Amino acid sequence: MPELPEVQTVVTELNRKLSGKKIVEVSVRLPKIVALGPGTLPPKRRAQVHKVIKFIKLLKGQKIKSVTRRAKIIIIDFYGPLSLLVHLKMTGQFIYFRKSQLQKRVRILNKPTAPLLSLPTKYTHVIFTFTDGAKLFFNDTRQFGYLKLVSDAELPHVRELQEFGPEPLARAFSSQVFENILKRRPNMPIKQLLVDQSLIAGIGNIYSDEISFRAKVRPARRVKTLNEKERHAVFAAIPFILKKGIAAKGSSVGDFVRTDGSWGTMGKYHYVYMRAGQPCKICGTMIRSMKFGARTSSFCPKCQK
DNA sequence: TGGATTTCCTGTCCGC
DNA sequence: TGCGGACAGGAAATCC
């Protein structure tokens, strides 16, 4: 499940690999995965053939200037007046192979038992081919992700780029900024607040659980019940945990893979996420889990108050 | 306006 | 061996 550290890993790698490359061919194998223009995607996405044709036509011949990120959205910027916005959601993957690597086989599911597959697989929905024969594959098992092509003029009107809270690794994300966010949602469980993209950008289920653990605060604690020390512990844990995730090239619990198909290593450093029923690495107490709406949150009942 | 709920989607896992 | 159902979850839409 790509969150800020996973998306940052992909962005760093793609920026290095794709900058200066020119697209010669675009293959869209699942039409509903691509979109044009700034509007939000309807709940039930329908394939619109004319849009797919236009999507391909606009991208052919484009040269990539840079690959950046806002929250969990990947922004591929072209020298022309276009940007491609990509959201990986839960199971989206970008895998890049040079021409000489195209026969390479990878495990796109992060289990040792998953089969080694050559690309494209049946989950490969979009393929970009570059002038040097290299290819970029977009895979997405659950089809929640999307690739949205917008013009530079449309960029300020893209709703999903407007409604993000501050970047938690930016210098501007001070303790005062965090305190102000907490003041806006006194009744919210701290876990809910951490994953709300309109309040803080980029944190999802994995990292919110790990941040709560490091701060020794239970995910269900309502914001207004946190004392000053606890609030500061949460604030300090946010960049600490996110930077750790980036250093490990992401967590590969779930379906995340790096752009060469290899796995991130953050998973083995998790204290609580996906560890319900296992002993706490600090105190040995059984890790418990609870539900917030549709989301599961794990915590140590002894280490976290 | 905040908060809860539903929806999109498919692979995996568990019980029978 | 196969089937049904629960579950996983980011975030938009919808409802109260």
TrEMBL record:
User: Which cofactor is essential here?
Assistant: Zn(2+)
Which residue numbers delimit the Formamidopyrimidine-DNA glycosylase catalytic domain? 2-145
Record key words, sorted = DNA damage, DNA repair, DNA-binding, Glycosidase, Hydrolase, Lyase, Metal-binding, Multifunctional enzyme, Zinc, Zinc-finger
One of the protein's GO biological processes: base-excision repair
In this record, what's one Pfam family? zf-FPG_IleRS
Listed under catalytic activity are: Hydrolysis of DNA containing ring-opened 7-methylguanine residues, releasing 2,6-diamino-4-hydroxy-5-(N-methyl)formamidopyrimidine; 2'-deoxyribonucleotide-(2'-deoxyribose 5'-phosphate)-2'-deoxyribonucleotide-DNA = a 3'-end 2'-deoxyribonucleotide-(2,3-dehydro-2,3-deoxyribose 5'-phosphate)-DNA + a 5'-end 5'-phospho-2'-deoxyribonucleoside-DNA + H(+)
**Which N-terminal stretch is annotated as signal sequence?**
none
Mind telling me which CDD domains this protein's record contains? EcFpg-like_N (cd08966)
Molecular-function annotations in GO: 8-oxo-7,8-dihydroguanine DNA N-glycosylase activity; class I DNA-(apurinic or apyrimidinic site) endonuclease activity; damaged DNA binding; zinc ion binding
Its domain of life? Bacteria
Where does the record place the FPG-type domain?
271-305
* Assigned protein family: Belongs to the FPG family.
Q: How does it assemble?
A: Monomer.
Against NCBIfam families, the record matches this protein to: fpg, PRK01103.1
Q: What is this protein called?
A: DNA-formamidopyrimidine glycosylase
- Species of origin reads Candidatus Doudnabacteria bacterium RIFCSPHIGHO2_01_FULL_50_11
